[in-house]
Every structure is written in C-alpha cells, then in structure tokens.
C-alpha cells in the first residue's frame, strides 16, 4: 500500500480549489495517493482571528485579481461565484458519506462540487445542489438525501474541523507530507521537494 | 535604460529577507533592474487588521518551522533573531539617505542590514547598529549620524509607507512588475512568468 498525502480544504476556498486541480497528479509522480479532507475553515479562523481575505481592505481587491491570474497561470478554469463565501456543510457531508463506501467516487464528487461552485457558479451549500452532483455520478437520490440528515454523517463531518486544527491546520489548502504541513496553493514547489527527498 | 521592478519590504520581515536574496538575480535574467523600497509594514497591518504571523495561534508555530525550511529550500542562511519583531526605522532612513547618493551602495546596505538581523541577530533598529553597517561600507560615521536625525530623511522614509499602501501594498515582500503586484516570497514563480511574458 502506497504512502499517502493528506489534503485539507474548504469547499468555499478558491486556493483550495486551485490546489485540488494539481495535488493528485503531483502525488502520483512520487507514487503517493492523496486523502482528501474537506473541513470548515471558519472554525480555524476563529482561533487565529483571521477573516476571509475577500472581506479585507487591500487584500480583497488583490485576491480578486489573483484568482483570475491563478486560473491563467495554472490553466484551471475559474469564475468568481455569487454568493461568495458559502458555508459548505452539505458537500462535506456527502463527501464523507461517499468516502465510507468508495473513496474514488468521493474524490470525483469533490472535484465536481468544486467545479460546480468555482466554474459554474452553483451554490453547493444548498442541499439540493449538493445532492444533484452526487446523483449525476450515479448515486441514488434517496440514499444521498437520507445521508445528509444522518446524525453519524453530520457528526463525522463536524469532527473533521477540530481534528484538523489539532494537527495545525489554519488555512485552506493545507497539505501534509509525512506529518509536515504546507499551507497554501503556492507551496506546491515545496511539497514537491519534500516528496523528492522522502522518495526512498 | 532598462525597465524596473519595484521590491517593497520591511527590514523586520523574514519573507522579505528570503525574497531579497533572489529578486536581483531573477530580474537580471530578464534584463530588469530592481528598485528596493523599505517601508514599515505595521501601518498596512493597521488597515487590513493583520497581526504579525508569529504572534498568532497555530500560525506562529507554523512560521517558525517554515522559516527554517525556507532557509534550507532556498539556500539562504537564517537564524531567528531576538528581539523579533523590531520597528526598523533606523535602517530605513539610512537606506534612503544612501540611495539619494548611490543606489548600488544603498542596495548593498540593505542586504547587509538584512543579514545583520536575520543571520547575525544584531538589532538593526538600534541607531548605533544601523550606523555601523553603513560605516563598514566606507560611509562617514559623522555623515550617517547626521542623516539619521535629518528631517528631510525622516520625512522621506515616513512617506514611503503610505505611498506603498496607496499602490496596494499590504504585506512584505510585495513585488511590482509593470504595475502588477505580487505578494510574498512564494510568488517568485509567478513574477518569473510575468517577466517572461512582458519580455518584448
């Protein structure tokens, strides 16, 4: 069984979205698989006092431009959604419910949910939207509706955020290689170096 | 006369220090010269509500580790100074005073001041230390002492910070290529792409 990388992200995070488009192919080059870990970064922001960048003077304007050029530089499609930000509970619950059954399908769900939000502008925090993305992957609508209300699933997703904070996660994306954390989509170069060094 | 890049930084900023070790050689590859612009990033932090990362829960611990690995990954010497942070008024004043006479000398002064702080742990916010670094470059001690108290120099350095904020600077380092801003030492890859694209 290959060693893993852990990829923490918030479904509402643009930089999480950009990193998500590259993390699997980067890991594959070093014979690693990636465990995707959606969470709600807002709870970490409460601990660090951080605010969403888009709401901050100077930074907000910088970000809007930055996401457009990230899209061009990384060759990843992008359109600023409205509403932005969202609290992405529904896709998080669907993701972990799927993951318990089929981790490949769960990852495809996450990719489709990110694209639905950051390319097609669909509000994936709305349960119906989160459900439809699963149904489009061949999942039973009844089963996913039921899962969204299941207390075990609710608790499972809820617990991911404090667990991540315990590991040191304070932003999205946050990538762990052999327990060492890397914050931000700008750190792919350092993640790559780490993977090269720990190859053997 | 070659086109320029503007490099904004705070003498107390670790990421500014790391970027300062690479920015000139990167620019040279694309036949650009770099205008170094020390400022006090604290005033920008007041506008954005940012705090120094090192004081923030979770982020502080991350940073301490991150600076060490930046040093290894970028091959730039590093030792966390004490005290950290400092308000680097003295080296800022000396820098602009020198720049009015000799921009090459001023840049060498900035590099030496950065190394004095982040390699040798000297408190460059102390006027005597800031002066000694200039004297070691062959500058008259009397002249630099006088300059540090000169109202024109004081005003010159003071004005750099609001001028930078007006341009959108909210962190250190902040690099402008043809008016487009790039925040952070992690953005060298994108600065490079921008320079490649605007080559002709």
If you had to describe this structure to a student in words, what would you say it looks like?
2 copies of one chain form a homodimer. The first copy, chain A, has a 4-stranded mixed β-sheet, sandwiched between helices. With 200 residues, the first copy, chain A, is an alpha+beta fold. Helix content of chain A is 54%, strand content 10%. In chain A, strand 3 and strand 4 form a beta hairpin. In chain A, 42% of the residues are buried. Chain A has 10 helices and 4 strands. The first copy, chain A, starts with a strand and ends with a helix. In chain A, helix 5 packs antiparallel against helix 6, helix 5 crosses helix 9 and helix 7 runs antiparallel to helix 8. Chains A and B meet through helix 3, helix 4 and helix 10 of A and helix 3, helix 4 and helix 10 of B.
Short synopsis of the structure:
Chain A is α+β, with helices and mostly antiparallel strands and 200 residues long. In chain A, 54% of the residues lie in helices and 10% in strands.
Question: Main attributes?
Answer:
54% helix, homodimer, 200 residues, alpha+beta, 10 helices, 10% strand
